[in-house]
Amino acid sequence: MEIIGIIIWLIFCIFIGAIAKNKGRSGIGFFFLSLFLTPLIGLIAVLVVKSNVDEIEARKISSGAFKKCPYCAEIIKREAKVCRYCGKELPSSSSSKKLSDYNDWVQKQKFKDVSTK
Ligand SMILES: [Zn+2]
């Protein structure tokens, strides 16, 4: 019976660590906090602690799926053409800009070939 109790205890600690990580906090820190001070205290601590917004934003941007709106600085999806927070139209992402620049360059080269013949 004791082993089951320890396993449940550990599951709670991992669960609390996962919540902490989602809030941009140290998952391992909260895991050990609940491990030593009971998961109940860990749970209260993780619910009381404020989300680390900067950390969450940095994580989203580094994942590549999100970018920061240049007008209102909110985190939006990378493919977004209009910001869902401020409604402003966004400049196309750097990768598609490069592609259109390349296409322009190709068109110019073709034109050059035609004109020199
Ligand atoms: Zn915006």
Please specify the SSE layout and strand pairing.
Elements: H1 2-22, H2 27-48, H3 53-63, E1 66-68, E2 75-77, H4 94-116
Antiparallel strand pairs: 1-2
The protein binds zinc ion.
Zinc ion (ZN) is lined by residues 69, 71-72, 74, 83, 85-86, 88.
Key structural traits:
2 strands; binds zinc ion; 117 residues; 66% helix; mainly alpha; two-stranded antiparallel ribbon
Which ligands does the model contain, each kind named once?
A: zinc ion
Q: Helix- and strand-based class?
A: mainly alpha
What is the overall number of helices? 4
Order of helices and strands: HHHEEH
Distance between the termini: 89 Å
Principal-axis shape = elongated
Helix content: 55-70%
Average the pLDDT over all residues and give the rounded result.
Answer: 88
Structure description:
- With 117 residues, the chain is mainly alpha-helical.
- The chain has a domain of 51 residues.
- Helices cover 66% and strands 5% of the residues.
- The chain contains four helices and two strands; from the N terminus they run H-H-H-E-E-H.
- Strands 1-2 form a two-stranded antiparallel ribbon.
- Helix 1 packs across helix 2.
- The radius of gyration is 25 Å and the shape is elongated.
- The termini are far apart.
Summarize the structure.
This protein is mainly α and 117 residues long. It contains four helices and two strands. Helix content is 66%, strand content 5%.
